[in-house]
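Complex record, two chains
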Amino acid sequence: MGADVDDAYLVQRAREGYLDAYADLVDRHGQLAYRVALRLLGNHHDAEDVAQEALVTAWQQLPRFKANSRFSTWLYRIVTRKAMNRITRTPPTESLDLLGDVPETGDEPSQRTERNQTVDAVTKAVAALPPPQRIAVVLRHFEGLSNAEIARITHSTIPAVRSHLFRGRRTLSQTLQEWR
Amino acid sequence: MTDPGQPVRDIRQLLNGTTRHLACGADIDELLEQAADGHAGQLTGHQRHCPHCQAALPEFTRVWEPVRSLAAEHVAVPSALKTAVASQIRKLIADVWYTLQPSDSGAIRIAAHVVATIAREAARNVPGVRAAFGRSAHSTTAGPAEEAILRHRHPHAAAGVLGRTAVVDLAIAAQYDAPLDAIAREVQQRAIAELRTKTGLHDVTVNVTIDDVIT
């Protein structure tokens, strides 16, 4: 039933204390938070923690949310900031659960192994990018956002985003080319 | 720049960062962007006649394909995420109040947010209701102890019910052309009936606020 109303209505009700209005926002945007965290961090355990932290922080900061902005844009900003904090706080570790979200495809085992290796290689290559390039690549090529939207989310400029994307794509392409 | 007479044969030469343009002058980063966005087939006027660009674009597309493939994968959200977020928020706002119904066999407690959810779900089934949100609140006739609790609660709290008394605030968004008064009364009746049936609470008040209409 919450699908009938827009995000702005849910945000307003959540600000008034209707916690289940915020639960509807989590229903709608929880996947966004988790997906972005997963692509930025490269493993499910950290992604779940960061998505959870981001969604709680978003609720705590609802009074500061500007009514003329989109809830999703605001959430992207909180998730990327939380993910970057985690990256700078913790030393890189070898991820053991990169493939946890890959659904069963019905492929033959050999095809599945190849596919899993590809997922693993891309995930590692993205996670190895320097943070500004990683954010730009994930938001543009995994989330399908425009350079202008990325600039708004990262408090940056469109030329700066473009520059990070150019470098990120080159680095990622080189890594993937070597891997093949 | 690459050899002006030959289309590039080794993509590594193009991607090593020292080369910015193809022999034809096309910007490598822009070609890579075109391929990464899945637009390699949409050739510009120059590209339609340029062997360098026509050689580079399929190569870039091939290299980028695993990224596009991973981006298209559905990411399943952990089932516990929503529950964990709601649980953390409830702790933050100290929304842990319970109804308390003593009996000879022991006490029965039902969390305030459960009471609010039952009322909300009852409201959502009323024709003409497009959205409903429940907030359980203390009775306005709360005693001194309850008032003390109220003074210290977080302003965003869905303050709990007390004892055998429940007061639930429901915010409703209604269908634009629906009879609002009739909807509000139906919501009250159904929510009260549901709460009495499901929780055993009999002193139940349901305040309905229709604060939006949806066309």
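Note: Residues 1-93 of chain A form a domain with the Rna Polymerase Sigma Factor; Chain: A fold (CATH 1.10.1740.10).
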